[in-house]
Amino acid sequence: MPEPAPNTITRPYRGLSVQDVEVPLTDEGIRGLLLGREVYRRTELLALRHGAGTALVAVRAADREALFGPVTDLRVLARPDRTVWIEDSDIDVGIATALAGAALASGRDADAYVVQGRYEHVNVIWRPQPIRIHVTEVVPPHPPKLFAMAAQVVAFDEDLPPIELVLDTVDIRALAAANPAKHYLLPCRGSGVDLPGEVSFLDTRPGTEQDWLLIGCERSRQFHEHFYGSDPRQVDLCPRARATRDDGEPVLAKCCLLERGLAVQDGVAVVPWGSNLDEIRAGLRALCGLPGPRSPELVPAPASATR
Fold this sequence. Notes:
Helix content: 10-25%
Oligomer: single chain
Largest sheet: 5 strands, mixed
Strand content: 25-35%
Number of domains: 2
Structural class: alpha/beta
Number of helices: 6
Number of strands: 18
Shape: elongated
């Protein structure tokens, strides 16, 4: 039986069964206990507990159609010295990122981390190696909206691998400090930024053009040209223009020129400036090599259990 790939969890987590046992958690003791023993047809992994120790075991059953079937083969994946049991009632154990966070926060070196979390449900993560995804976004405000929405997606999409979101900021204040001017023109009032000198906002469409410095993107320049018939002095702040990384790590960014949908190229996923959670979810899934989410299959309701 093959060893799990790093970041493996059970999906759904009913694939893990937790059992308190009386036998010692040695290879011989585990094989003697489990071979020929019935397991539920959805059980792929067993977390066996004996005293303070936990072992993780993969099992194979001859029949996966019957409700229960005997174990025909097994592999002890992690003995007690390589398995950590964690209890944290705040952890959603269906989310790989939450499991990886609990594992790494434990500070213990192991192969398998078995986590009892919210509602006392239990899942396991194997050798967590979170994927770093950079979120390139304009600040202020802080935290920026795209970063906060990406964190929302990571917290509910059970298909995603463990992800470490890394904020890469495009700071309006730093751009202004590097390009001093008496009068700045910003794209909109939503940033809440405080700059030295006079500040105007393009979304209010000031009545007359001024000798200002536009800190904005290509779409802002287009608006300015439409409003006033000229191109202003400009410092570009487009997150998309800063999205390519020398280290090759994936990037999630947004761009005003994309009005709906998702663009993915060379490890960069670009969503619209006013993106929704579905677009951000699709972007994160694409960066992780996953297809778009499928709608739940409509199936007949189960027959009544009453006789």
